[in-house]
Design brief:
By secondary structure, this protein is an all-alpha fold. It is 76% helix and 0% strand. The protein is built from 11 helices and no strands.
Length: 258
């Protein structure tokens, strides 16, 4: 991925978010909120989907895709080995299981019959972000600075992008705990990209969607012990997965006849 594509995507996405979600923060200071002005949801969606449509605009402008159809096929390329889908499932089980085991569940959560609604909402307000973060930003940085540094840089940018949501009441997590959680997820999504090839973007969309559903359907107590433990688990599993994958790929390349 060209450096200018990464820079254009990042600046344009953050700029749109600053105008839309930043505008909502300013409106809130004057008592203008979504509770009494439903039209403001348009700004929420415009900012929330910015990584998605900016991804297409930047890639099209720089000749990385020929048009919307090619971009769509790249984002929703689903053909991957079954173990890649199992890896996504394993991550969600480990992430939720670690938090629940350490911090305990709060009770409640979404009723089972609302699962389709939760999936649809999480796909739009979450999963589709990956058409930008994990199509352009993280894999592009990974090519230039490696897995660990690209995960750290992407994690900081991704977390910063979410900051306005704390000021308009759309994120109920502790500010700094959320930063740690996002960083752990960034390592995991980076591992998905590394080991899944062309299907990596879709698998990231899937992972993000299912993680959001799990967070809403299986609420747990928010504790630093649970957050740090889950972070260590996510980063460790991701790093080991990438290490084993790269070693195996190198071994296969060396064993091929020349």
């Amino acid at each position: 991925m060209k450096t200018k594509v990464i820079v254009q995507f990042t600046l344009l996405t953050l700029g749109i978010t600053l105008l839309t979600w930043g505008g909502l923060v300013m409106f809130a200071q004057f008592g203008i909120a979504t509770d009494n002005h439903p039209w403001l949801f348009a700004l929420i969606m415009l900012g929330g989907l910015s990584p998605t449509y900016v991804s297409y605009l930047v890639l099209k402008r720089n000749g990385e895709v020929s048009g919307f159809k090619e971009w769509l096929k790249n984002v929703f390329y689903v053909r991957a080995k079954m173990n890649r889908y199992l890896f996504v499932t394993l991550f969600i089980v480990l992430f939720m299981g670690t938090n629940i085991a350490v911090s305990g569940m709060t009770g409640g959560g979404q009723p089972l019959h609302l699962l389709p609604v939760g999936l649809a909402m999480s796909f739009v307000a979450g999963g589709l972000e990956e058409a930008g973060w994990r199509y352009i930003l993280q894999p592009g940085l990974d090519q230039k600075i490696g897995f660990v540094l690209s995960s750290l840089v992407t994690g900081v940018i991704w977390w910063a992008w979410h900051i306005p949501l704390f000021f308009i009441g759309f994120l109920a997590f502790d500010f700094w705990m959320y930063a740690v959680m996002v960083m752990g997820m960034t390592f995991f999504y980076g591992a998905i990209i590394r080991i899944s090839g062309r299907a990596g973007v879709f698998l990231s969309v899937l992972a993000h969607t299912l993680t959001n559903v799990a967070l809403g359907g299986l609420p747990f107590y928010e504790t630093w012990a649970g957050t740090i433990t889950a972070f260590v688990v996510m980063v460790s599993v991701s790093a080991i997965t990438v290490f084993v994958y790269e070693r195996r790929k190198k071994h296969l390349a060396m064993s091929m006849p020349k």
